Amino acid sequence: MLLIYKFVVSLLILPTLVAYADGNSCNVSPSEKCSIDSLPLPGDDGSVLIYPGGNTRCAFDDYSDNTTTFKSSSQYFFQVFPNQQDKSKVLLFFQGGGACVDKYTCNFALQCQLGASPLITTTAKVDNSGIMDRGADGNPFNDWNVVFLPYCTGDLFVGNTELEASESAYNQALGNKQCLGQNRSMHLNGYNNAKTVLDWALENFPNPEKLVIGGYSAGSLGAQLWSAKVAEMWQVEQKSTKFQVLADSYVGVFPEHKAAASSLVNFYGGCDVDLHFPEQMKAECKAGTASATALVDALIKETPKSEWLFIDSNADRTQRKFYELVRLGIAGYPFSTLLDAGEFYGNLTQILDSHAQLTSVTRFNIDSDKHVWLMSPDYAATTSLDGAVLGNVLSDWLGHGSNASNMTVGYKTNKTIL
């Protein structure tokens, strides 16, 4: 049983990059809005934690397992790196941290049995690494107002449903039987968490000159799915706000032949929430017939003047593992054969080609199987397939995005195998 346990952990875990900060905090209440101008002084990492309460929460109620060291907490917060002297530049950044895909993976028992390495992040956590590091020389976001959205619901920030407690034969095959019989439901509450944070950000930064929504891993897809709604909330077209989308290490390469990507969004309850999809796409989402490409294309059409930067490894192992998890489910382990790297990159290229027909798309492609780049301390030195430097490309894109329309950095043509 121990061997099976370790095997599942090593193959199914979608890693998160987490650093712990010692920031000061503010609790939202009827008498305290935690407005940007009244926040306490930031902690050593330059951030303040805001506890919004209300309808925010993480996936599971509070629990701590002494045997596996698994922990869950229902409490949600978000992290703000303020620049109170200049509110003209705002970054909304969505954390990564895995995703569950069905009733066999979206349950408390499995996450608890996987111990310190659950399939999803089950507590809200701060991050001050990579582009969140205010002390890093050359960080292009050092003087921006950064609103960081922790991820603890496993639903790509679009969930809006509660799943009843469930267990299956897969749970019986794993160890840590103390995790069974807990009768704990799972709250796919990512939409409400994100909307609460974005409402706070809009109230406190209503008129930025530059607005970037971004994220890494699952947070990358979350940012893409929220892009049109954020553009609508801030009225970026009416106000001529420079609006950009920064996507690190997730493009919707999905086993569409098994089920369209929208079937997963619908499982989370994400087809019923307001992401600013046009009515026809809402219907296709509910019907489970819309591909990942079609979903994001529909949102791009709502914000045609947006500028997008995709940062991806050409053989990203985590994205390829997630593909197999969706295709085969947990029953498919040991996933001894991943989606071929060339096929993955070919499909990634095809997806971005589709997006590039609709708006400005810059691609930074890296010859690697690594997952997530912007949260590494040395991200700025990362080189693309043709030798471009990520720090330079990111700075140029932020400052001169209109001159980088449909630019590809480190692009190689691959045959696309469908």
UniProtKB/TrEMBL annotation:
Question: Which SUPFAM superfamilies does this chain map to?
Answer: alpha/beta-Hydrolases
Tell whether Signal is among the UniProt keywords: yes
User: Which InterPro entries does the protein's record reference?
Assistant: AB_hydrolase_fold, PAE/NOTUM
Keyword line: Signal
Domain of life the protein comes from: Eukaryota
Q: Which GO terms describe its molecular function?
A: hydrolase activity
Q: Where does the signal sequence lie?
A: 1-23
Cell inner membrane keyword on record: no
Protein's name according to its UniProt entry: Carbohydrate esterase
Query: One Pfam family, short name please?
Result: PAE
